[in-house]
Amino acid sequence: MPHIVCCVKQVPDPEAPASQFKVDEAAKKVLPIPGIQPVPSQFDTIAVEAALRIKDKVADTTITILTLGPDAYRDTVKHCLAMGADEGVHINDPALNEADHWATAEILAAAIKKLEPADLILCGRQAVDWDMGVVGSTLAEIMGLPIVTIAKDVQMEGGKVTVERVLLDGFETVEAPAPCVVTVSNELGDPRYPQLRQIMQAARKEVKGLTASDLGIDGAKNRVTLEALFVPETAVETEYIEADSLKEAGEKLAVRLREAKLI
Amino acid sequence: MPSGVLVFGEATEDGQLAPVTGELLGAAKSLGGPVTCVLLGAGVEGLAQRCASLGADKVIVVDDPLLKEYQGDAYVLIGERICKEADPSVVLFGQTMTGRDLAPRLAARLDTAVAMDCVELSLDGDKLQATRPCYGGSARARYSINRTPQIATLRAKVYDPPAPDESRQAEVVKQSADVGEDAIRARVVSRRKEEVEGVRLEDAPVVVSGGRGLGGPEGFKPLEELAEVLGGAVGATRAVCDMGWYPVAAQVGLTGKVVTPDLYIAVGISGASQHMAGISQVKNIVAINKDAEANIFQAARFGIVGDWKEVVPAFMEKVRELKTG
């Protein structure tokens, strides 16, 4: 019975208006936007979609959603369960909340070892908050597993994982033995949206909680220090081209670009 | 004591030193101390002198047919061995397909950590200060790494390469790959290229890009025509590539390509931070968008608020006239 673990996280809604994005520089934290709920990180739900496509073909596949974060992350686990995943595991411990990418990978690895043996571990190619893109690779190295990054298609058959990888000017097919780690990119396609019936079923499902002591970990062993967090200055004076008609505006733009020696 | 900067250089497909390698050598120089450049690949030995002319004091070459194309499992083993021998204080990669894949793996093997996609690197004593965009470019974070080597990847086209000095010499050390077949666990079985005609997006002096506001794939036809008139290339946002309106190879942004043309014309692009991350170094952005509130205008030097279908044909005609006139 194939077992897939999907590592997911929750992020501030990246579709929120840019004008509302604010940082507390002293606390080195992004301020939550009032009235806008955090959402599952987009690449992570695409990783769940990749797992569900495998399950669509091999019905006895089980998919476990694994997350590390505070109470609110439960919503993200529930969302992924509603998409069609089978189990939810939530590592929730104040001692682990400030984990950097290294510590996150270390904690996830410890949790995965507590689960049923995984044949495939899927992560988003990067989280849409810190955009670092390293947890999947770090997790693989800690666990000593093969890793394939930036997948647009993932197939698993008979102990072999076949991945279509996105390159800058094309694609490549990579084969790796299971168990392995794969990070998934947006080229895979949109994640499915849960139906109402699934949302109600997921609401009743238990999410298993894990703490640092369950994992035998005494805190997040960070390797990087966030020294500063700030909003960069992007003051650009925009010259709006106005005219009686848009056709004239288009012509005027060409003239202005010529004057500025840009064409 | 770890010391100096070690740079992982890259070659282009046609056997030249990749531009990002020059930029990495420029960044390494700005940090100070001896600079070692590592070249892994097939047929890369001839590039050692080029690295020397751009500021490398030592070049370590591993030239092996096995390394012709990037294979993570082979590269990470060789990278680990070289770093353990050289014991650098700082290791730099480009934020390329290779850097994205290799840097975090190597960091784990060397029992350290990495800061990805940096736009500014400096030293505070021995401590690397690595500044990088996050939240899709809305914020910047400055990190230090509590272990050595301190590893970072550098975004393309942020640092200038040093002026080449052909008389500069470097110590060139050749090493064999020495990687057994059985060490390769994730194996590349085939590759296929997605060809984009005309000027390469990364090299184009002018880029004409389209977003969701084009309304459909047919909207790219006039943009292609405009790009041709301007001697440029066509780009696209992630949203339209995901919808299949345009090839993924043309995607500009955080998860696509970083471009630095002299002129960037954004048509029907709202300016999501994911896209802006790909044009953050562009000085001259023209925004054509119906929505006056679109984020793209924040970064635009020139803006027209209105339907692109009315603006672009008239603009293109006038450009033709000016170019021939």
Would you kindly provide a written description of the structure presented here, covering whatever features stand out?
The complex is a heterodimer of chains A (263) and B (325). Chain A is α/β, with parallel strands linked by helices. Chain A has 2 domains: 3-215, 3-Layer(aba) Sandwich (Rossmann fold); 233-263, no CATH class. Helix content of chain A is 29%, strand content 29%. Chain A is built from 7 helices and 15 strands. In chain A, the strands form 3 sheets. Chain A has a 9-stranded mixed β-sheet, sandwiched between helices. A two-stranded antiparallel ribbon of chain A has the order 2-5. In chain A, a hairpin with a 2-residue loop joins strand 10 and strand 11. In chain A, helix 2 crosses helix 5 and helix 3 packs across helix 4. Chain A is globular. Chain A starts with a strand and ends with a helix. Chain B is α/β, with parallel strands linked by helices and 325 residues long. Chain B folds into 2 domains: 5-183, 3-Layer(aba) Sandwich (Rossmann fold), CATH 3.40.50; 201-324, Rossmann fold, CATH 3.40.50.1220. In chain B, the strands form 3 sheets. In chain B, strands 5-9-4-1-2-3-10 form a 7-stranded parallel β-sheet, with helices on both faces. In chain B, strands 13-12-14-15-16 form a 5-stranded parallel β-sheet. In chain B, helix 3 crosses helix 4 (97-109) and helix 5 runs parallel beside helix 9. Strand 15 of chain A pairs parallel with strand 16 of chain B, so a sheet runs across the interface.
Give a short overview.
The complex is a heterodimer of chains A (263) and B (325). With 263 residues, chain A is an alpha/beta fold. Chain A has seven helices and 15 strands.
Write the topology of this structure:
The complex is a heterodimer of chains A (263) and B (325).
Chain A lengths: L2 E6 L1 E2 L11 E2 L4 E2 L8 E2 L1 H16 L4 E7 L4 H11 L3 E5 L9 H14 L5 E5 L10 H9 L3 E11 L2 E8 L2 E8 L2 E5 L11 H9 L2 E4 L1 H4 L8 E7 L8 E2 L5 H14 L4
Parallel strand pairs in A: 1-6, 1-8, 6-7, 7-13, 8-12, 9-12
Antiparallel strand pairs in A: 2-5, 3-4, 9-10, 10-11
Chain B lengths: L4 E5 L9 H13 L3 E7 L6 H6 L4 E6 L8 H15 L3 E5 L2 H13 L4 E5 L1 E5 L2 E8 L4 E7 L4 E5 L16 E5 L11 E7 L12 E5 L9 H10 L3 E4 L1 H5 L20 E5 L5 H4 L8 E5 L6 H4 L2 E4 L2 H17 L1
Parallel strand pairs in B: 1-2, 1-4, 2-3, 3-10, 4-9, 5-9, 12-13, 12-14, 14-15, 15-16
Antiparallel strand pairs in B: 6-7, 7-8
